[in-house]
Amino acid sequence: MTTNQLIYLIEGTGWTLLLALTGFLGGGVLGLMIALMRVSRVTSLRWLSYLYVQLVQGIPLPVLMFLSFFGLAVAGFNIPAFVAAAVSMTIFAAAYLGEIWRGSIEAVPKTQWEAGESLGLTDFQQMRDIILPQAIRLSIPPTIGFMVQIIKNTSYSVVIGFIELTQAGKIINNAIYKPFLIFTLVGAIYFSLCSPLSRLSRRLEARLRSRGA
Prior knowledge:
mainly alpha
């Protein structure tokens, strides 16, 4: 394996991280909206967010990427593979982060809501000042755990030709045909990216349990 091929693999790793970060940040913004809609007192908002979650979770991520890339092309929008992959990752992450955060909001004891009402706070004030700070603390471990899935799921972007870590490994392997060497290295890179996040997630979960959270 040459130095240029190793650099190419490192560049693929960089694109993997950029795609994962873009999907997580975009999915986080949209996911927070989904979570708040899921716990809203407005029935139509709850149903819309519920349908979104069910629809997205029922469609495989590679299919979402196909629809984003080729579907928009059919509609006359020729977008780069990275943009299509990022849009798909955002849509995908939002559905799962929305459910993670909805569960965290609903895990806050009802007495906290009642305390806010007794103080005369509005729904917005209760959510902002009482519920969300507690829900955020509860949601940190599963959110970090989901980041691991986002990193690994970037490999699905190979279906639309985006060159991230897995695709870079395939291209190098096609050139030198050393699959065991190449994909062992690719696996080691994924492990080095995901393992610290997995350990951090488990550590935070254990800490929350020890505090009775």
